Amino acid sequence: MSKAGSLLDWQLAQDRLLAAIAPAGTEQVPTQSASGRILAQAVIARRNQPAADLSAMDGYAVGAGDPTGPWQLVGESAAGHPFAGDLTAGRAVRISTGALVPVGANAILLQENARIDGSQLSTITGSKAEAKHIRRAGFDFAAGDTLLDAGTPLSPAALALALMGGHGAVEVFRRPSLAIIDSGDELASDPAAALPHQIPSSNGPMLAAMAVPYVCAVERIGPVADNKAALLAALETASAADVIVTSGGASVGEHDLVRPALEEWGATIDFWRIALKPGKPLMVARRGKTVVLGLPGNPVSSFVTAWLFLLPLLRRIGGHPAPAPQTVTRLVEADLPATGDRAEFLRGVAKADTVRTFDEQDSSALRVLSQANALIYRPPGSPALQAGSPVQVFLLQNGGIA
Ligand SMILES: Nc1nc2c(c(=O)[nH]1)N[C@H]1C(S)=C(S)[C@@H](COP(=O)(O)OP(=O)(O)OC[C@H]3O[C@@H](n4cnc5c(N)ncnc54)[C@H](O)[C@@H]3O)O[C@H]1N2
Ligand code: MOO
């Protein structure tokens, strides 16, 4: 427990959530659709790359001998259409970038340096054919090489490498399914029709947008009325999901019914209320294999707790070896006040070396959140900081993990 009495330290809470989660099973998927997935098996090259010596330039492949020529032109090696014969000294073929270098050729004369007279090829003064324009067979990798280790996230480059290694399909971890329940009598589904006592239900779509890269399916449920029966029905609808997220109704008011509804539904509450600002009323519960995250309703609290807990949880189930966001260091542009018992995640803008926080830090202020590219981390009980002091920052781009 934290200095804040009954509130759990947010890092202990994150560790506790992730420690209890094993990656889901694995599945084979077409490599070209596997962007962002985590490899469950290493990718071993099935071919040499390149498979043969290839020209790196457009020009002429020349037979062994004097690199300044002249040569007799005897044919062409185009990409995908190799020259049929061998090349001997004094002979050359037209060659394009990516085309097979014929047996017997040991250098490429660049097109820009060539002089053609009928079938005679010679060099312009001061130039010569050079071996450096040949990409040697297997220079990038050879069959049997480990190209990607198990646990690697498939970046676009890694995905291309797996394809180049001869793998049309890869074994990856399965991604979880997610159900998102918005709750609150004040929520309006149609933002254009929200009356003064209502508020557009923005959390569900925001959470879905955040989760999309990490899930196989998202089901949105609600807005659900502030009564236990409606919440129980929503939980029942969501019960097939690997992860259920609720937003709103997590606090202590008499209309905050998520906890009693979860208990009645048969879930066990793992923890509730953490030393985090914004995001104190976070709740984690389980029923069977389903993990339930009860996020606070305030939109910024919902975002921050989803960023720190939901996304790491989804990544861990999806096999990510380092699912939690990481900090970088920046210098604060202006003085920061001391903090209380809760860790604070201030919305701000990080540049290459510095970071500034917005004056407005209300946990419902979406305008500032949408302008932020960083959360400035202030541990619980931090002293006041002077401008120019280093501070830990979570960059929002890429979920803070890349
Ligand atoms: N007496 C106390 N009151 C509150 C405490 C406390 O400890 N004691 N905690 C405060 C904190 S911190 C937070 S955060 C909020 C969170 O409360 P809930 O999770 O119960 O959320 P709601 O009360 O249902 O809603 C809060 C706020 O967010 C709006 N909301 C809810 N759902 C959505 C949605 N889907 N899209 C957009 N906005 C949503 C809702 O209308 C409220 O304005 O509690 C404090 N109170
Ligand atoms: O912690 Mo609440 O999340 O202040 O707004």
Automatic annotation (TrEMBL):
Q: What Enzyme Commission number(s) apply to this enzyme? A: 2.10.1.1
| Pathway noted in the entry | Cofactor biosynthesis; molybdopterin biosynthesis
Q: Which UniProt keywords apply?
A: Magnesium, Metal-binding, Molybdenum, Molybdenum cofactor biosynthesis, Transferase
| Name of the top EC class for this enzyme | transferase
What InterPro entries does the database record attribute to this sequence?
Answer: MoaB/Mog-like_dom_sf, MoaB/Mog_dom, MoCF_biosynth_CS, MoeA-like, MoeA_C_domain_IV, MoeA_C_domain_IV_sf, MoeA_linker/N, MoeA_linker/N_sf
In terms of PROSITE patterns, this protein maps to: MOCF_BIOSYNTHESIS_2
User: What does the record give as the reaction this protein catalyses?
Assistant: adenylyl-molybdopterin + molybdate = Mo-molybdopterin + AMP + H(+)
Q: Look up the record and name the cofactor or cofactors this protein needs.
A: Mg(2+)
Q: State what protein this is by name.
A: Molybdopterin molybdenumtransferase
Gene source species: Alteraurantiacibacter palmitatis
